[in-house]
């Protein structure tokens, strides 16, 4: 989705090196992200436009943080989301494909404010049309990526089971192995090893 890929711009090395970077400052990242989502690149953003993208990202993260602990979103963060939405006037049109109808939003502007509005719309749809209680923050404390849990039993604990999930599994196993070697009674269970 547009919004969660945008959130990945705030990168923290999930392997625990402590390295982090704001990919909004990385040449080419915004261009690549927009290309993946079939949106036009409006050219390099100004400092003010970059700040607005960062504020929007901050509002979205804080809303997710509140919802994951079953608290209401802060009105200031919702206001920030609404501000981003107001930056991209658009009109709707009905399109038909394979006998299905869908509403398409056609932007009236082509700049970064329109992109911010598209991101806010993509996130807003999660809040209004999906289940906000499925929003999650990765349990890997080195990662903390935000994602939408689409699993049937709402059990997704990591942004990516193959990366963060496996890493923590291996860490848990090694910690138990170390404890066992140190003579502790905490010997790893076979089920922990083959999980
Ligand atoms: Zn993660």
From TrEMBL:
Q: Which InterPro entries match?
A: ABATE (IPR010852), ABATE_dom_sf (IPR023286), Znf_CGNR (IPR021005)
Q: Which domain of life is it from?
A: Bacteria
Q: Which SUPFAM superfamilies match?
A: Jann2411-like
Which Gene3D superfamilies does the entry link to?
Jann2411-like domain
Q: Which residues form the Zinc finger CGNR domain?
A: 134-177
What's the protein here called?
Answer: Zinc finger CGNR domain-containing protein
